[in-house]
Automatic annotation (TrEMBL), chain A:
Keywords (A to Z) from UniProt: Cell inner membrane, Cell membrane, Cytochrome c-type biogenesis, Membrane, Transmembrane, Transmembrane helix, Transport
GO MF: heme transmembrane transporter activity
Protein species of origin: Dokdonella immobilis
Transmembrane segments: 28-47, 53-77, 98-123, 135-159, 166-184, 196-222
Principal cellular location given in the protein's record: membrane
Lineage top rank: taxon: Bacteria
A Pfam cross-reference name: CcmB
Function summary: Required for the export of heme to the periplasm for the biogenesis of c-type cytochromes.
UniProt-recorded name of the protein: Heme exporter protein B
GO biological process, one term: cytochrome c biosynthetic process
Subcellular location: Cell inner membrane
Listed GO CC annotations: plasma membrane
Family: Belongs to the CcmB/CycW/HelB family.
Membrane topology qualifier: Multi-pass membrane protein
From TrEMBL, chain B:
Organism this protein belongs to: Dokdonella immobilis
TM region(s), chain numbering: 27-47, 59-87, 94-116, 136-152, 164-184, 204-225
Protein name: Heme exporter protein C
InterPro entries: Cyt_c_assembly (IPR002541), Cyt_c_biogenesis_CcmC (IPR003557), Cyt_c_biogenesis_CcsA/CcmC (IPR045062)
GO cellular component, one term: plasma membrane
Protein origin, superkingdom: Bacteria
Cytochrome c assembly protein domain segment(s): 22-187
Gene that specifies this protein: ccmC
One Pfam family hit: Cytochrom_C_asm
């Protein structure tokens, strides 16, 4: 029996995952809706004073997007685990890290990217200064793939558990702390007129590292929890 | 096979480990208690009061050894996790999982004594200082390992998953520490040094080191006892475990 090339296997996987998301496109919007709701709650709790909101807006946007990403993580392997296709992925002759990498990429495209698209709206609702918006978007573009990659490792460990929500948050949180610090730190630095490039570069370096290592770690974790 | 690997294999066999743990644990506990009491006497009675913090500094004799232990326990856990994942040694899985709760308690004691110390010195129970924050994240890492271990039904699979998480955590700890340092120094410099400008005096140093020794020994005793219990649980069906349970004396 001949197998297709690695590239064709990844392409088939990407096409399948995109199609599955498209067929349930209502569900795909849930993280965005969640992020909007979280952001709306903050002015209601803190009062509508624009200056105060502007000061903390970048942090709120990041926390809202981080939480939305956390909720969306659950869908990464759940369906595949329930219908058994995850086992087939593990058994397939193609390298598992590569397959998982393309799964994570699709997951980022369908959850991370919509969150970046909605971020300017969230920032406007919280009166973030316009000049900071490009920094916010750059930080998000670097941070959301990191969240997906780190999250995938932890999801792989909890795959097959019935109620993993709270535990997943506990596992993922320590990994997200540095990402949140650098991403929000860049925005805060830009807002107070300081140099903001260094934290963005750190995020970029972390992303380069995680792009290589996280799929490998994810594959190792998946093999442990599926065995 | 040379002597070292032979010893390693022998120690890795559950009945032998069980026998050693049973013999060793009471001695270790006793040693730790004596050392700890001596260190407390040295710290609370013999050592002079600090010229800046007067008697309030004496909590250092609990706080600092526990802080060292919180890191040491994590490294011990991660080292065992690595051995467990690479060479699939059952004892290492059990030792790694046994050290997680002990390390978590040391971390919690560090945080609690730190905030008790912080109230009179800094005027606040909690400050978002880099050290405090990374210690808190360390506690979350411990809780994650314990939570994952308890959430999976199959004990050995649970141990392997949690061991993997511990290894991810050991990569994460320095990154968190670095990022938190960067984050705090961006906003404000560290305003309070722990010990003031003076280096620690010898009369304060020996109780501190003695207490550190006591906590280390206590940690190992505690891990041995925990590991012994989970070993008997895991090996419940085996002959040697049954013999112990029926009180037929120690297995040969």
């Amino acid at each position: 029996m001949r197998y297709g090339t690695n590239a064709s296997a990844c392409a088939a996987l990407v096409r399948r995952d995109l199609l599955l998301t498209w067929r349930r496109r209502g569900d795909a919007l849930n993280p965005v809706l969640f992020a909007v709701i979280v952001v709306v709650l903050f002015p209601l709790a803190l009062g509508p004073e624009p200056n105060q909101l502007a000061r903390i807006s970048a942090g709120i946007v990041f926390v809202a997007i981080l939480l939305a990403g956390l909720l969306a993580l659950d869908t990464l392997f759940r369906g595949d685990h329930e219908d058994g296709s995850l086992e087939q992925l593990v058994l397939s002759p193609h390298p598992l890290p590569l397959l998982l990498g393309s799964k994570i990429a699709v997951h980022w495209l369908t959850t991370g990217l919509p969150l970046i698209v909605v971020a300017p709206v969230l920032a406007e609702m919280l009166h973030l200064p316009r000049s900071v918006l490009p920094v916010l978007l750059a930080a998000l573009a670097l941070a959301t793939p990191l969240l997906s990659l780190f999250g995938a490792v932890c999801v792989a460990l909890t795959v097959g558990m019935r109620r993993s929500g709270m535990l997943l948050a506990l596992l993922v949180l320590p990994l997200y702390v540095p990402v949140l610090i650098f991403a929000a730190g860049a925005c805060n630095a830009a807002q107070s007129g300081l140099a903001y490039l260094a934290p963005l570069l750190w995020l970029g370096a972390a992303l380069a590292l995680a792009l290589v290592l996280a799929p490998l770690a994810c594959a190792a974790a998946l093999r442990i929890s599926i065995s | 096979m040379n002597t070292l690997t032979l010893w390693f294999h022998k120690f890795g066999s559950p009945p032998v480990f069980h026998r050693i743990a049973v013999r060793l644990a009471p001695w270790l506990f006793g040693f730790a208690v004596i050392c700890g009491l001596a260190a407390l006497y040295g710290g609370l009675v013999v050592a002079p009061a600090d010229y800046q913090q007067s008697d309030a500094y004496r909590i250092i004799f609990i706080h600092v050894p526990c802080a060292w232990m919180s890191l040491f326990a994590y490294f011990f856990m991660a080292a065992n996790a690595f051995i467990a994942l690479v060479w699939r040694i059952k004892i290492s899985e059990i030792l790694a999982m046994a050290s997680a709760p002990v390390g978590a308690v040391f971390t919690a004691i560090t945080l609690i004594t730190g905030s008790i110390w912080g109230k009179p010195m800094w005027g606040t129970w909690w400050t978002w200082d880099a050290r405090l924050t990374s210690e808190l994240v360390l506690l979350f890492l411990y809780l994650g390992v314990i939570g994952l271990y308890n959430a999976i039904e199959d004990r050995r699979q649970a141990a392997r998953a949690a061991a993997f998480l511990a290894l991810v955590g050991i990569v994460n700890v320095p990154i968190v520490h670095f990022s938190v340092n960067w984050w705090n120094t961006l906003h404000q410099g560290s305003t309070v040094r722990l010990l003031g400008p003076s280096r620690i005096d010898e009369s304060m140093l020996w109780p501190l080191l003695l207490m550190a020794l006591a906590t280390h020994v206590w940690f190992f005793a505690s891990v041995l006892v925990r590991a012994r219990v989970s070993l008997v649980e895991l090996e419940g069906g085996k002959e040697w475990a049954r013999e112990i349970a029926l009180g037929k004396g120690e297995p040969a």
